[in-house]
Write a structure and sequence with these properties.
The structure is a single chain. The chain has 300 residues and is α/β, with parallel strands linked by helices. Among the domains are: 93 residues, Arc Repressor Mutant, subunit A, CATH 1.10.10.10; 104 residues, D-Maltodextrin-Binding Protein, domain 2, CATH 3.40.190.10. The strands form three sheets. Strands 3, 4, 5, 6, 9, 10 and 11 form a seven-stranded mixed sheet that branches. A two-stranded antiparallel sheet has the order 1-2. A two-stranded parallel sheet has the order 7-8. The radius of gyration is 23 Å and the shape is elongated.
């Protein structure tokens, strides 16, 4: 049985990156934090923290860190089920921190209202492509993830969220320069600069395959920011796949145009959550489903 105060000290050090900030977070002395971590290390018989700047977890420390966060989440769920008020502040009453894997475009378009709808919870978001976010769940690094795959991760439940619609967009000046008055073709598309989020981003290629039958794109700008992606397209840097909710205003006032009108790309999204914490995470799941329903399109 691990001492809750020792687990809290370990979590605080790894969350804040230092023993000093951990002490400030838990309202105790730095020596108390050091003593508790040392006692925990003696109990498990191995080092848990790499004393660097910032502090990092060893493999054993990472495992205990996830265990501590899961216990805190489960405790909050029990308190909620018993009708007890959630503790706030103080050494033993810190809110649980929930680590999730979320794709950047969901975060930019609909996920923050879901976070805001959940009381007494702190969020630690890992940003990754929807085609890769489930890998964080498979490794046990997060408790839930927004994924583009409907296949449940082992030990997890999967709920459909809907489809986020993407549109191939560019500024009118860009379209005029690279395509003129002619239709967009694969031959012309391979010369036109494109905007890509990162090396995992295949949306532009997927759209070209769907719209033109050939996965052809031109030289790329690399721009890992959802909002800057829209701004770059408006500025004429290149064309890119922008989420419809982010591009709607610019399309409406003419700052952006679709390369091929009426040719969207709908990307399905699913909510995967670990079964070990699914009951405790019900308020989060409910908030995610509600927020998604207001922005995403029905699947199918």
């Amino acid at each position: 049985m691990f001492d809750p105060a020792q687990l809290s000290a370990l979590s605080a050090v790894l969350r804040t990156g230092s023993f000093e900030r951990a002490a400030q977070t838990l309202h105790v002395t730095q020596s108390a934090i050091s003593q508790r971590v040392r006692q925990l290390e003696e109990q498990v018989g191995t080092s848990l923290i790499i004393r660097s700047q910032p502090c990092r977890a060893t493999e054993a420390g990472e495992r205990l860190f996830r265990h501590a966060e899961e216990l805190r989440l489960l405790e909050q769920g029990v308190r909620r089920d018993l009708g007890l008020s959630s503790k706030t502040g103080g050494e033993t009453g810190a809110w649980p921190t929930l680590r999730l894997a979320v794709n950047a475009d969901s975060l930019a378009t609909w996920f923050i209202p879901a976070m805001a709808a959940v009381d007494d919870m702190l969020f630690d978001l890992v940003i990754d492509d929807q085609d890769h976010s489930a890998e964080w769940l498979q490794r046990g690094d997060v408790r839930a993830a927004i994924s583009g795959s409907p296949k449940p991760v082992q030990g997890c439940d999967c709920r459909p969220l809907g489809s986020l619609r993407y549109l191939a967009t560019a500024s009118p000046a860009f379209v005029e320069r690279w395509f003129g008055q002619e239709e967009v073709t694969a031959a012309r598309l391979k010369d036109a600069p494109v905007i890509t989020f990162n090396a995992k981003d295949r949306l532009q290629t997927r759209w070209a395959e769907k719209a033109l039958g050939v996965g052809v794109t031109g030289p790329s700008h690399w721009l890992p920011s959802s909002h800057a992606f829209v701004d770059a397209a408006i500025a004429g840097l290149g064309w890119g796949m922008n989420p419809e909710p982010l591009a709607a205003d610019a399309l409406s006032d003419g700052r952006l145009r679709e390369l091929i009108p009426g040719n969207p790309l709908d990307v399905p999204l699913y909510w995967h959550v670990s079964r070990t914490v699914a009951p405790a995470m019900k308020p989060v799941t409910d908030a995610v489903l509600q927020a998604a329903s207001g922005v995403l399109r029905p699947l199918g």
